[in-house]
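Progress against Task 2.4 (sequence-to-structure conversion) is shown through the following example record, which the project officer requested during the mid-term review.
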Amino acid sequence: MEIQGYPSYLIYSDGRVESKIGKGRFLKPTLGTRGYYYVGLRRDGKRTIKKIHRLLALHYIPNPENKKCVDHINRIRNDNRLENLRWATHCENSQNRGTDHKNTSGHKNISYDKSKDRWAFQKMINGECHSKYFKRMEEAISYRDQYLLKRSNHSIHHSLAHY
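Structure tokens generated for the chain above:
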């Protein structure tokens, strides 16, 4: 399929990008420092960097809700199979993350706040930060699990109320 805005290039559903210039050749993707594959495309003498997963989503995955982000479902940034990509909101995309490499607890949404000498539970929900502090990491983990369970039960109850 021809790349939108770049008529000299084709994108295939397996992520290969082909140049139609000259004899035509497949471009060699580069693995960036953040873990995403990208290619350089030229138009009007200017080179532009494009991430492969975004090109695939733009050309092969419907986006009826006009979501802005492309999420790697299995969290592997260089796995650009179509079945591993989906359109997502920024919030949905950020919720599909593992623990941050700086996370000292090894648990999602749990971190140690040196300035307070406390363990913190922190979670962004609908753009609002929910947080609570604890003396022990186990207390923060327990609170997080109860908090998330309560929210999921509320969501199920709320969605059933509409039937």
